[in-house]
Amino acid sequence: MYRLILRRFLLAIPTLFVVSFLSFGIMKAAPGDPVRMYVAGGMSKGSVEDIERIRHNLGLDRPIYVQYIAWLRNTLRGDLGYSLATRRPVAQIIAEKLPASISLMGISFLLSMTIGIGIGVLSAAKQYSLFDYVVTVLAFLGNSLPAFWIALMLIWLFSVRLGWLPTGHMSSYETTDSPILDYAKHYVLPVTTLSLVSLVSWVRYQRASMLESLQQDYVRTARAKGLAERVVLIRHAWRNSLVPIVTLIGFSVANLVGGSYIIETIFSWPGMGQLGFDALLKRDYPVMMGVTLLSAIFIIFGNLLADLTYILVNPQIRES
Amino acid sequence: METTRSQSSYFVLRSAQQSLLKLSWLRFRRNRLAIISLSLLVLMSAAALLAPQIAPYDPNAIDLTPEGILQPPSSQHLFGTDELGRDAFSRALFGARISLSVGFIASGMAIVVGVLVGATAAVAGGWVDNLLMRLVDILLSVPLFFLIMISQTIMTPSIFTVMAIIGATSWMDVARLVRGDFLSLQSADYVTAAVVTGATRTRIARRHILPNVANTIIVAATLRVAQAILTESALSFVGLGVQPPDASWGSMLQKGLTRLLDAPWLVWFPGILISITVLAFNFVGDGLRDALDPRQLA
User: Fold this and answer.
1) With an 8 Å Cβ cutoff, is B133 touching chain A?
2) Which among B146, B236, B273 is the top mutation candidate for probing chain A, defined by the most A β-carbons within 10 Å of its own β-carbon?
3) Which of B161, B51, B149 is CA-nearest to residue B95?
């Protein structure tokens, strides 16, 4: 068991390397001169000498592998460089944006997991009922509708037509609501949209896995013993159905990170996704790389969490 | 003599294959949702192909008169008109060409790469298998959508880069599926029989295993098209996909976003079209999975 856990940890290292290679390589292949952007951003004009001097100071005239190693060494020390647009440390900018993103993703993750598992169990327990039918149809819909379009429709309905909820941002400048209520109102739509993305997979997997475990002999035995149906469903069927679906944790985290770029941008959410997207449009390479790297760490962490939970809930592996 | 014999066995095989196909088709036909979806997709593809013939207006014809711009849906303009007075229905017809072709071509690429990688890993085994599958693991934990967006900012986005990038980033699960199927079929009796006759490993993979993995590949391809259409629409929605003057459903949504207050129909229809198309591909994929499952032959 410990060897398996160790192996999973070790696999995360090459993944991080590949991510760093990919993002570094893509940035270097990019057209457009970051030094010129840097100069044009502050001064009205830069002379050729100025540009060459800045290029030399930034180390951009050295061979690519030297630049990569230098970048990697700094990154490992937590120094992600400076934003070309605002000239502030990237690590600091990202740190400011993290709470908004983590709270949004965390709430969405917990909501989609608990609601998804609940719906999945109920729908399997009442297979072929009207509820089950509606859930199956909605799951198909949720799998097919673009999340960003759902976001647009929610904004159109609840903000534009009904005026109940704000169209975006995390809080209002002026409001009569208490600060907590104001925050809550701003969270509703982004959380709903982001949750929907992974809710569907939780429902589908939990339903399928629960249906399978309901057919097992131990469930029949439990029923034959005369146990209450609730006990059979929860203690015997559900607990065993959880083993295969905990792997969804990793998938779900990847989904949330991937979805956050567009969803945060649509809702003007002051988080990492929007930061990354803005940096992309401004070609602010250090920020782009910082965001890519951090997103990758999130996803890798999600996968690790999934693997560890899988080992913990699966007695066959735990005891080997 | 030799040719006659192989020809006759060819016919036997062929009729057996035909009856298998026929059985699958009969099973598929019983699935009402799948049949409706398939008809819808055929209809939509035909409409996309014939867009120049059936579009009621020139998709780029501008009408800036007050009676022309931002008209709500009506019998003249089924989907209304945009801020330049262009007919949204005609634009959606032409958009279908781009959305569908990106979906088909990108998923085609993903399937080719996925099958090659998956089959190579399974057939070669050993360290090749290990290396390729670790690569798949690693690529699956990379923030792909962000990398796609980055690549698009760097490569002057066009329809072709969209197809190539979506194809290049979505083959991993196909590779896993194909490898799994290959591995389980490699221990089948008919494969052992082929080994005994002295067939080479590539020949066995190509002639004996691949045809039996076709079911998995067809289903995966159908579901991939749905995913590719979704990815393309998201990319185009943020302005990193198809570029003007080309317009896909996703880029129509991007334009519509600015008009959410006074012309919400510009956001309704392209989104509904994307949803229906993706839904239909998912239903067809599911129907195919059930119909092609040889265990249900009896």
Assistant:
1) no
2) B146
3) B51
Which residues of B are less than 8 Å from A276 in CB distance? 146
Torsion sign (Cα): B219, B221, B225, B227 = positive
Tens digits of residue pLDDT in A192-249: 999 988 899 899 899 989 998 888 888 888 888 888 888 888 888 888 888 888 888 8
The count of CB pairs under 8 A between chains A and B is: 119
Mean pLDDT of chain A: 83
Give the Cα separation of A250 and B79 in Å (integer): 41
Q: What is the pLDDT of residues B25-52, one digit of tens each?
A: 888 888 888 889 999 999 999 988 887 8
Are A149 and B145 a contacting pair at CB < 8 A?
A: no
Separation between Cα atoms, residue B63 and residue B83, nearest integer Å? 9
Instruction: Examine the fold and report which residue of A45, A79, A113 is the final residue of a domain before the chain moves on.
Output: A79
Closest chain A residue to B275, measured at CA? A145
Nearest CA in chain A to B261: A160
CATH number for B271:
1.10.3720.10
A131 with A57, same domain: the answer is no
Chain B residues 223-252 with CB within 8 Å of chain A? 226, 230, 233-234, 237-238, 240, 250
Backbone angles phi, psi at B198, to 5 degrees: 90, 20
Same domain, A135 and A223: yes
Q: Do B261 and A18 touch (CB under 8 A)?
A: no
More confident call, A306 vs B71: A306
Q: Distance from A280 to chain B by nearest Cα, in Å?
A: 7
Looking at the partner chain, which of B264, B267, B282 has a beta carbon nearest the beta carbon of A143? B282
Asked if the structure places residue B247 within a domain, the reply is yes
Range of the domain at A198: 93-281
| Chain A residues 246-275 with CB within 8 Å of chain B | 250, 254, 257-258, 261-262, 265
Beta bridge partners of A82: A89
Contact predicate A309/A58, CB 8 Å? no
Let me know if residue B137 belongs to a domain.
yes
Residue B254, number of CB atoms within 10 A of its CB:
21
Cα–Cα distance for residue pair A79/A92, rounded to 1 Å: 10
Q: Is residue B38 part of a domain?
A: no
Whether residue A65 lies inside any domain: the answer is yes
Query: Chain-centre distance of CA B126, in angstroms?
Result: 32
What is the band of B13 on the pLDDT scale with cuts at 50, 70, 90? low
